[in-house]
Amino acid sequence: MNELLAALPTYLAAHLQLSLAALAGGVVVSVPLGVLATRRPRAGRPLLAVASALQTVPSLALLAFMVPALAAVGAPSIGWLPAVLGLFVYSLLPILHNTTVGLSTIDPAILEAADGVGMDARERLRRVELPLALPLIIAGIRTAAVWTVGTATLATPVGAKSLGYFIFGGLQTRNYAAILVGCAAAAALALLLDGLVHLLELGARRRRRGLVVAGLVGLVGLAIAASLPTLRQAARGGPRPLVVGAKPFTEQYVLSRIVAGVLERATGLPATTLDSLGSTVVFDGLRSGEIDAYVDYVGTLRAVILGRTDVPRDRAAATREVREALAREGIAVAAELGFENTYVVALPRAQAEALGLEQIGDLARHAPGWTVGGDYELFHRPEWQAVVATYGLRFASERSMDPSLLFEATRSGEVQVILGYSTDGRLDAYELVPLVDDRAALPPYDALVLAGPRLVHEYPAALQALQALAGRIDAAQMRRLNAAVDRDGLAPAAVAAGFLRELDARP
Amino acid sequence: MIALERVRKVHGEVVAIDEVSLAVAEGELLVLLGGSGSGKTTALKTINRLVEPTSGRVSLAGEDVRSMPAPLLRRRVGYVFQRLGLFPHMTVAENIGVTPALLGWPRARIEARVDELLELVELEPASFRGRSPAALSGGQAQRVAVARALAAEPRVMLLDEPFGALDSRTRARLQAALAKIHRRLGLTIVFVTHDVVEALLLGDRIAVMRAGRIIQVGRGRELAQAPADDEVRALLTEPLEQAAAARARLAEGP
Ligand SMILES: Nc1ncnc2c1ncn2[C@@H]1O[C@H](COP(=O)(O)OP(=O)(O)OP(=O)(O)O)[C@@H](O)[C@H]1O
Ligand SMILES: [Mg+2]
Question: Is the domain of B91 the same as that of B173?
Fold first, then answer.
């Protein structure tokens, strides 16, 4: 809990910075667009239609889409920029919509009076139309503010720091206190922002300068507080800290901290971790140099960079093939850790023992009456097809869900069998037993520490230090590390530190 | 000072005014009198280009009103709307000072002018300057609208039924105030009403409108003595007959 609270200010500030930047952009763009839309209805209608259409795109997808879109134009494609762009797009509609409605519902008699006293179009807009539309425009900004703060939690998978760090991480590591901290902080932030904008509105409407000043001081104060960490970082100068990426599951959180620890010791530079990144986001980040290292798996890499979706027969050949492809991208394989994280077919131990199930093939008899659960990708992946084909399994239904819920679903009986991950600490935590893949349908997923161009070229010593990790973590060890987080509730950083101390003690 | 020459305005199928010609002398108060829908408002609005005629010509002090940008023209012409049109987000003082502000008057001059006008329309400046239009009675709002029209010292004022929907005492006070302003400042005024008594009281001359046309123009007495047709006669005599009948009923008593 203390560790959570210690990390809170950093992520809160980053979350605020992201939200404020997106919101400010939204206001600066939407209000003039709203004015344009009411002046030129022919341009305005399509404009509103586009904004509405963008709004219907699920926010997570919108943020994720920004990554390849930015990469395509050669801009920094992970982290702050894609997040702020996605949120900005998301904030457009409520402001644009309310501005148009506010401007087009003014009493025509008032508009005629404005003409009658001698205002030209500009003066009428500034002195009459905008002031009268202000309450609605502000209402739109308030809606956008609440949405933006809420949606900014989804910036974590694209590599931007936000309160989503606590929510994504907490879900994966069954740390409900973290989820609560993230949600409560986001809610408080949304209320605060909403309140400050409301204060501005009240002040403008009742002509109370004090309220306007209070609202402005609050907003500017928040903006300054939010940018302090960035400014301090900039003032400190020196080389950018090394960044180690992690995908959204426990094993990645632990391994990224181990790698970061090794890098810090080898280079003397601070090394930070960037958690809960999307699978393609983290690889793209490594290739573009925005991330310096992370751990990935042969099977995944083979699919992502080689586009190979078949199940390889020869394990060593597959690894060699991936190494060569990575080298062409300027990425080095610093170490093979010594374990594989593959899909395993698992079910509750009690059930397996009662029915005498040991091998995947034994499932064939029961499958037609059972539901199988897997992560979002699984049922589209060749591994699943291989399992089904090899063992002739036909389940009553297949259900995709978030990995964090998959295990819970076995307990509640919503699914009878899952495809989990071989090193997952939750297999033990939920008393699940993996079935033996006796006909080798599932491909090898050896874990590799990847090093990006910056380590390869500028920090050869760091690369060497990472090589010391080769063969140091076997599957049992990895499961222990995972369980220390998932079952015992330790922080990934603490588990990583413990492992590094042990490593030093060993010859 | 003001001249309409064969002015016509058509909204699709509807002919709002048709071949309206009218000349208003400098310093004159001309009343446009007519029933609902007869085209009074339309004719009035062609003078400051709130309505652009379909055909015909409107001139002000000898110049075609189209010879200058509409906003500049309108700042020189005071206008009181049938529905007043006070700006709800501005105070009384800001409403009155709006045209001077557009003309770039210095702030102090605007403030002094606002006080002067509030006194003129008999509203206590200290009490009314800072009020919102929503906090005014109907009669007070109409005074503010008149003050706003006068603010930039126009030589020409256009008033569209400014005293409608008021009790008769308030209306009489405002009519008297307007007559006084007209005399003191020597303004040229076009005043729209459908009330004959008001027309007879205020107008130097009266132009009677019906169905988009001007039927007759002249002093009140001339219209009564030589009405152009039965309808004009009825228009002028009916209120007299009604007043006589009402008086008779009063005399009979309960
Ligand atoms: N914008 C418009 N579109 C269509 N018809 C209009 C428009 N403006 C005025 N008219 C029509 O033109 C005619 C004259 O209207 P106008 O407003 O000038 O009458 P008015 O004499 O001022 O009536 P009132 O005493 O009721 O205010 C009416 O029949 C009205 O319906
Ligand atoms: Mg009218």
Answer: no
The CA distance from A51 to the nearest CA of chain B, in Å, is 30
* Claim to verify: residue B169 and residue B148 sit in the same structural domain: no
d(CA B140, CA B170): 10
Q: Do A112 and B75 touch (CB under 8 A)?
A: no
Six-digit token string for A141: 């900004």
Are B165 and B224 members of one domain?
yes
- How many Å apart are CA A491 and CA A480, to the nearest integer? 14
A97, A140 contact by CB (below 8 A): yes
Same domain, B168 and B244: yes
Atom number, ligand 1, closest to the C-alpha of residue B43: 18
8 A C-beta contact, residue A293 and residue A467: no
Q: How does residue A78 score in pLDDT terms, banded at 50, 70 and 90?
A: confident
Counting every residue written for chain A, the total comes to 507
Note whether residue B100 is domain-resident.
yes
Nearest to A151 by CA among A23, A305, A256: A23
Query: Looking at residue B4, what is its pLDDT?
Result: 95
Last residue of a domain, one of B119, B153, B187: B153
Phi, psi at residue B210, to the nearest 5°?
Answer: -155, 135
B60 interfacial to chain A (CB closer than 8 Å): no
Considering only CA atoms, which residue is closest to atom 28 of ligand 1?
A: B37
**Which residue range forms the structural domain that includes residue B169?**
25-53+70-76+158-254
Question: CA-CA distance, B14 to B92, in Å (whole number)?
Answer: 37
Task: Say whether both B104 and B141 belong to one domain.
Answer: yes
Q: Whole-model pTM?
A: 0.81
Residues of chain A with Cβ-Cβ distance to B98 below 8 Å are 117, 119, 127
- As for the ipTM of the complex, it is 0.91
A343-434 CATH fold? D-Maltodextrin-Binding Protein; domain 2 (3.40.190)
What is the rounded average pLDDT for all residues in chain A? 89
Q: How far apart are CA A34 and CA A38, in angstroms?
A: 6
- Show the tokens assigned to A11: 């992520």
Best A117, A125, A130, A138 residue to mutate vs chain B (most B CBs within 10 Å)? A117
Q: Can you give the pLDDT at residue A233?
A: 73
Q: Which ligand is nearest to the CA of B14?
A: 1
Per the structure, the count of domains in chain B is 2
Q: Is residue B6 part of a domain?
A: no
CATH number for the segment(s) A242-341+444-505: 3.40.190.10
- Residue of chain A whose alpha carbon sits nearest to that of B152: A117
Q: Which of B108, B124, B153 is the last residue of a domain?
A: B153
Distance CA A154, CA A152 (A): 5
Beta-carbon count within 10 A of B24 CB: 21
Q: Are residues B146 and B179 in the same domain?
A: no
pLDDT digits (tens, 9 = 90+) for B73-121: 999 999 999 888 999 999 999 999 999 999 999 999 999 999 999 998 8
Residue-wise DSSP of A334-346? EEEEEEE--EEEE
Same domain flag for B48 and B165 = yes
A423 CB-near residues (< 8 Å, 6+ apart)? A251, A339, A341, A475, A478, A479, A482
Q: Which two tokens stand for residue A288?
A: 């573009």
Q: Looking only at Cα atoms, what is the longest distance across chain B?
A: 64
Q: Give yes or no for a contact between B218 and B224, defined as CB atoms under 8 angstroms apart.
A: no
State how far the Cα of A265 lies from the Cα of A468, in Å rounded to an integer: 13
Please name the residue ranges forming H helices in B55-195. 70-75, 92-96, 98-102, 107-120, 125-128, 138-150, 168-185
Judge whether B19 lies within some domain: no
Q: How far is CA A276 from the centre of its chain?
A: 5
- In CATH, the number for domain A2-236 is 1.10.3720.10
A26, A144 Cβ separation under 8 angstroms: yes
Q: Does position A408 have pLDDT exceeding 80, yes or no? A: yes
- Residue ranges of the domains in chain A? 2-236, 242-341+444-505, 343-434
B148 and B227 assigned to the same domain: no
